[in-house]
């Protein structure tokens, strides 16, 4: 008799459970809101016409790996074709991570990617932050995309572990004659104001 009761229960569940599932699904479809096609378009006719007239990309990201294994990521608020060749971008941030674990972050008001896509020139005020503890600023920097090299186009100034630094130029690059080792180099008349840290 217990076996018969069990068989009846299983038989009822085979009917009740699928019917319950159908009822739940039909309720979801009935309650779901309809989609307004006009509301799904975030741009007005004027904005669409402007974008067709002046092509641009919003929040683009460029990422790659150099020949020596460093990773580079460049992001911007907006990018568009440059007047002469290549691409120009605004509100740019870049990050260079070398295989030895060090990293350098750069931010700039604008940047240009050259036509062959091997160099990004950051300008309109460039801030450089290095994992070794250096915080520098300069007017412009060139960041290579095919090999590890970030080099200033003019004087730099800022702070590092030794103190305040002023120099005619600065570069992050692979150490000459030492593959796999990366250095931050100041050159062009370096002035250091030593400021020892309190213990």
UniProtKB/TrEMBL annotation:
This is LPS export ABC transporter periplasmic protein LptC. The lineage of its organism: Bacteria, Pseudomonadati, Pseudomonadota, Alphaproteobacteria, Rhodobacterales. The keyword Glycoprotein does not apply. The chain crosses the membrane at residues 12-32. GO terms for cellular component: plasma membrane. It holds the Pfam family LptC. The keyword Aminoacyl-tRNA synthetase does not apply. It comes from the Bacteria. Keywords: Membrane, Transmembrane, Transmembrane helix. It comes from Gemmobacter lutimaris. Coiled coil: none annotated. GO terms for molecular function: lipopolysaccharide transmembrane transporter activity. InterPro entries: LipoPS_assembly_LptC-rel, LptC.
């Amino acid at each position: 008799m217990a076996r018969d009761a069990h068989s009846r229960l299983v038989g009822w569940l085979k009917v009740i459970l699928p019917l319950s599932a159908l009822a739940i699904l039909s309720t979801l479809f009935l309650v779901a809101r309809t989609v307004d096609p006009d509301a799904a378009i975030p741009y007005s006719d004027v904005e669409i016409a402007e974008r067709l007239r002046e092509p641009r990309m919003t929040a683009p990201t460029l990422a790659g790996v150099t020949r020596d294994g460093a990773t580079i990521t460049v992001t911007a608020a907006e990018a568009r074709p440059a007047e002469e060749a290549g691409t120009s971008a605004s509100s740019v941030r870049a990050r260079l991570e070398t295989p030895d674990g060090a990293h350098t972050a750069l931010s700039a008001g604008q940047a240009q990617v050259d036509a062959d896509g091997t160099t990004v020139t950051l300008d309109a005020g460039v801030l450089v932050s290095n994992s070794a503890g250096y915080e520098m600023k300069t007017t412009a920097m060139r960041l290579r995309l095919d090999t590890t090299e970030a080099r200033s186009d003019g004087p730099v100034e800022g702070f590092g572990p030794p103190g305040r630094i002023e120099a005619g130029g600065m570069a992050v690059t692979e150490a000459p004659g030492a593959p796999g080792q990366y250095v931050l180099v100041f050159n062009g008349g370096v002035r250091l104001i030593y400021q020892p840290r309190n213990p």
